[in-house]
Amino acid sequence: MMKRCTKFLALLLAVVLLAAEATVPVSASIDAENDNTFSVLSLNVAGLPAILSSSDPAENTVQMSPLLNNYDIVSVQEDFSYHDDLISQLTLPYRTEHSGNVVVGDGMNIFSKFPIYLETRYEWEDRYGLINNGADQLTPKGIIYTSIEIEPGYFVDVYNLHTDADCDEKSLEARRSNMNQLAALIKERSEGHAVIVVGDTNSRYTRAEDNFETAVLDACGLRDPWVDLKCGGVRPADGEALFDYDNVNSAGHEVVDKIWYRSGKNVELFAESYDLLATEFTDAEGNQLSDHYPISAVFSYQLNPTYKTSDTYGGGGGEGFTFLEEMGEALPDSVTINTGDRLDRVAMTYGDVVVAAGGDGGNAQTYEFEEGEYITQMTVSKVKKSLFGTYRISYIKLVTNYGTVIEGGTYKSKNSMTFVAPEGYAIGGFQGHAGDEIDRLGCVYLLVE
Question: How far apart are CA 368 and CA 85, in angstroms?
Answer without folding.
Answer: 58
